[in-house]
Specification:
The complex is a heterodimer. Chain A has three domains: about 5-50, no CATH class; about 90-120; about 125-220. Helices cover about 80% and strands about 0% of the residues of chain A. Chain A has helices at about 10-15, 15-25, 30-50, 55-80, 90-115, 125-130, 130-160, 165-190, 195-220. Chain B has two domains: about 35-150, Rna Polymerase Sigma Factor, Chain: A, CATH 1.10.1740.10; about 150-215, Orthogonal Bundle (Arc Repressor Mutant, subunit A). Chain B is about 65% helix and about 0% strand. The longest helix of chain B has 27 residues, at about 110-135. Chain B is globular and about 55 Å long. Chain B starts with 9 loop residues before the first helix and ends with a helix. Classes of the chains: A mainly alpha, B mainly alpha.
Chain lengths: ~220, ~230
């Protein structure tokens, strides 16, 4: 095979063993090709200098440990979801049936919510709970009632302690019942302060006691 | 193209050997005691390695490391210019192999697939290092750092080559390192870099041409030497 200087790069890029041998033969007569071929091959020799295949058992130990940790993590994940694997043992027919039932139930539930639910809390339920602003207002009113009642009770104390007639005696009985109810409602309000129903009942009792005491004082006059 | 500060009087420094064409070193050959394995043996060994790793058998990974660990580390070190980063990249590669072995379809050999993961891991590490250095405003990551390595017969030649390699394109550097340093065939490199064999050959040619230009002694000094 005859080669010349023009073939050199082509052989460098993709030459066969035969073409390389021919180029070596040509290089014996051509100084430029000899230099180029020598330098080209020298690059391969120089590349060998970049080889360092020293054993590194420490690196394997590191890798082995990390692989072990990864395997353990995988095992734990598999255990956590292991119950799902039993599902694959169920026949396709049963799986399809179960999926159908689940779908029907979901459809029914969604439809029921759409037709019957407004998505809002009922007005009654909202009224059953007092917000912090309203609660402060109620407590203020209760305090005003208590203050007024204490004042009236002080003024009517003499008549009530020694009732002069059956009417005053019955007022006294009524006030005892009201006190018991107030005490009971106060206890409930302490446990459930935002319950509007209890607070309303308590205010009604205070109002009733205030009215009763005012009637006692009217009777005195 | 200019030189990189070290003009090599080629023939004076090294006894030039004619490289024997078509006598590539097999990936497992020199690491397995230099015994040349038949192609069918290589394929069987590769399949066995893949099967062992797929089964989660630690001895499979140990065998993979015994056969390729040193070479993988060398590839990574030459791509990353750092032994520590290279070790991290090799470790990360093994973890990626473990996580991804179920998706290995055998379109290339298992070993080729592993090296492809390694090379991609190295490129990712290089990119992230570059970003980190950009953030902190440090020197360019492409400039090779002096590092303690195995004693070489021609340390200055290696240094010059390392510096010249840093000036090549990423593809040229990859192909040169895999072919000339690691001794892989073009067919294997094609699988690793997901390019054609022809592209691998052409890239190697361009890489060597560029290196030759960079390492060539200036014409004037060469003439004076004569």
């Amino acid at each position: 095979m005859n080669v010349n200087c023009q073939d050199r790069d082509r052989i460098f890029e993709n030459g066969t063993a035969e073409q390389w041998a021919a180029l070596a033969g040509h290089a014996q007569q051509c100084r430029a090709c000899a230099e180029e071929t020598s330098a080209w091959n020298l690059l391969s020799v120089a590349a060998q200098e970049m080889r360092d295949y020293a054993d590194d058992p420490a690196l394997w130990q590191r890798i082995e440990q990390r692989l072990g940790e990864e395997t353990e993590r995988k095992r734990q994940r598999a255990e956590r979801w292991g119950w799902l694997s039993s599902w694959t043992n169920v026949s396709l027919g049963w799986r399809t049936a179960a999926a159908g039932v689940l779908l029907a139930a979901l459809t029914f539930a969604t439809g029921w919510i759409l037709f019957h639910g407004t998505g809002e809390i009922p007005a009654d339920n909202r009224a059953r709970l007092l917000k912090s602003g309203a609660l402060a207002e109620v407590e203020k009113t209760e305090a005003a009632y208590t203050q007024a009642i204490d004042k009236l009770a002080l003024e009517s104390k003499v008549q009530l302690d020694n009732p002069a007639n059956p009417l005053l005696a019955s007022y006294r009985e009524k006030l005892l019942v009201l006190d018991s109810a107030i005490s009971n409602l106060r206890e409930q309000a302490r446990l459930n302060p935002s319950n509007a129903h209890i607070r309303r009942q308590l205010l009604a009792m205070y109002r009733e006691k205030q009215n009763t005491l005012e009637e006692v004082l009217e009777e005195k006059r | 193209m200019g030189t990189l500060g070290l003009a090599l009087p080629w023939e004076a420094r090294i006894l030039c050997r004619q490289r024997e064409r078509e006598t590539r070193v097999e990936p497992t050959e020199h690491l397995a005691g230099g015994q040349k394995m038949a192609s069918s043996d290589l394929i069987r060994e590769d399949a066995q390695l893949a099967a062992a790793c797929l089964a989660g058998d630690m001895s499979g990974y140990e065998r993979l490391y015994a056969q390729h660990g040193a070479r993988m580390k060398n590839v990574a070190r030459n791509l990353l210019s750092s032994t520590t980063d290279a070790e991290d990249a090799v470790q990360e590669t093994f973890l990626k192999v473990q996580r991804g072995i179920a998706s290995f379809r055998g379109q290339s050999s298992f070993v080729t697939w592993t090296y492809r993961i390694l090379i991609n891991t190295c490129h990712d590490a290089r990119r992230s290092r570059m970003r980190k250095k950009e953030d902190t405003g440090q020197e360019s990551p492409d400039s090779p750092r002096p590092e303690q390595r195995a004693p070489a017969a021609h340390p200055s030649l290696r240094m010059a080559l390392e510096r010249a390699l840093a000036a090549l394109t990423r593809h040229q550097r990859d192909v040169f390192l895999l072919y000339e340093v690691e001794g892989f065939r073009h067919s294997e490199i094609a699988g690793m870099l997901e390019i054609t064999e022809t592209a691998s050959k052409n890239t190697l040619f361009q890489a060597k041409k560029n290196l030759r230009g960079m390492l060539e002694p200036p014409r004037s000094s060469a003439a004076e030497a004569r």
